[in-house]
Write a structure and sequence with these properties.
134 residues, 5-stranded antiparallel β-sheet, 5 strands
């Protein structure tokens, strides 16, 4: 595993306000490459996180939507449109961000739902930009 990925996860946990967990998913393999959390989670949950991230960004329906947008706009690029996804659950906020340099790398950050969304985005984007490109 790349030291760069481990460093990104550590910095997400340290620098994103209220961060409860952070990880990095490889979209090419669907694997969770690295994670840190304040709580212990069953391995099944962590395995599902990688699959859910893959579905959010590259699931069949999402890919179809991207293809329609590209067709309508006359774009032939293989680049993905969806770069960030914010999901609020009952008590938590989950932010998923693609690496600008390697779109197969997605950082995942989990915070309490009370997090300042602007600070969450600004901090997470900065860390991914500084430590991405793995």
């Amino acid at each position: 595993m790349s030291d760069q990925i481990v460093t990104m996860v550590r910095h997400l946990r340290q620098e994103v306000p209220g961060c409860l967990a952070a990880g990095v998913v490889d979209m090419a393999t669907g694997m969770l490459l690295s994670f840190e959390t304040t709580d212990s989670h069953p391995s099944e949950v962590l395995d599902l996180l990688a699959g859910a991230t893959l579905d959010l960004f590259q699931g069949r329906t999402v890919t179809m939507i991207e293809d329609v947008f590209k067709e309508r706009r006359g774009i032939s690029s293989a680049e993905h449109y969806f770069q960030e996804v914010l999901v609020n659950s009952s008590n938590l906020t989950h932010l998923f961000i693609r690496d600008d340099h390697d779109e197969d790398v997605v950082a995942v950050v989990v915070c309490p739902k009370s997090v300042n969304i602007g600070m969450l985005f600004a901090s997470a984007r900065r860390v991914v930009r500084e430590h991405g490109g793995a």
